[in-house]
């Protein structure tokens, strides 16, 4: 989407001085899903597609490169917000929900949320890795995520060049991110009448909060 100055200014003021960046539409080529996306020069990206009337679910895209992990804070900051991290393990993609009350390695979070990979958009290759997923029950009303009716809000991103301690384990300890920050996500631009088609690309819901994809 194109931001008008009147949209950008209040948002910019809401974000801290170290924060920067906004989002624009990116059509992921392998799935055809149009994600409202934040892209960082590090190679990190997070995109989101929402129903026209969002409730608890979204379709997400998390992109990183190398053996490190990439993460998103669905509530903007690291502390007491629902975090999602993903990383490659061989040719598989591992993903995990995390939450922490303090700075440091966030433990896995347990809730009624689930992630299900969208196979076409979940892969590793020589230049980057990509994790496209259906996130069910992931928009919460307890303040740990953005609100379902938000038109814009601040999300957080984090990217580590170092690999998790045990890459094959979804509960692995994570080394600290090498880069992190915030940006303004346009949820209004992420709403699409094609949402049901996008969500249907995901397989059966995973019973555990992780994804494996060969
Ligand atoms: C693994 C161990 C981790 C450590 C030791 C750690 C540590 C920190 C520290 C010290 C900061 C403050 C900025 C700085 O001084 O660099 C920070 C910020 C941040 N972290 Fe982490 N972090 C970890 C994992 C994560 C994970 C897994 C995520 C997301 C999936 C995440 C997301 C963020 C975000 C979005 C910020 C910027 C916003 C804020 O300051 O709250 N972090 N982290």
UniProtKB/TrEMBL annotation:
Leader sequence segment: 1-19
Signal as UniProt keyword: yes
Keyword set, alphabetical order: Signal
SUPFAM superfamilies: CBD9-like
Transmembrane segments: none
Cellobiose dehydrogenase-like cytochrome domain location: 26-196
Pfam families xref list: CDH-cyt
Presence of keyword Cell division: no
InterPro entries: Cellobiose_DH-like_cyt, GMC_Oxidoreductase_CD
Protein name: CBD9-like protein
């Amino acid at each position: 989407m194109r931001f008008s100055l009147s949209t950008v200014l209040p948002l910019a003021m809401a974000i801290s001085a170290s924060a920067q960046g906004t989002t624009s539409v990116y059509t992921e080529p392998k799935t055809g899903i149009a994600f409202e996306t934040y892209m960082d020069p590090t190679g990190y990206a997070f995109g989101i597609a929402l129903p026209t009337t969002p409730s608890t679910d979204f379709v997400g895209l998390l992109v990183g490169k190398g053996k490190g992990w990439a993460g998103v804070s669905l509530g903007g900051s690291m502390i007491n917000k629902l975090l999602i991290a993903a990383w490659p393990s061989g040719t598989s993609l591992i993903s995990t929900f995390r939450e922490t009350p303090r700075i440091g390695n966030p433990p896995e979070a347990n809730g009624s949320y689930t992630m299900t990979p969208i196979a076409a958009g979940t892969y590793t290759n020589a230049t980057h890795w990509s994790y496209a997923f259906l996130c069910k029950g992931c928009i919460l009303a307890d303040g740990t995520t953005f609100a379902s009716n938000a038109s814009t809000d601040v999300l957080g991103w984090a990217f580590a060049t170092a690999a998790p301690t045990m890459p094959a384990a979804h509960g692995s300890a994570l080394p600290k991110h090498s880069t992190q920050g915030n940006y303004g996500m346009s949820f209004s631009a992420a709403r699409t009448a094609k949402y049901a088609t996008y969500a249907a690309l995901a397989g059966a819901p995973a019973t555990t909060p992780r994804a494996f994809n060969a």
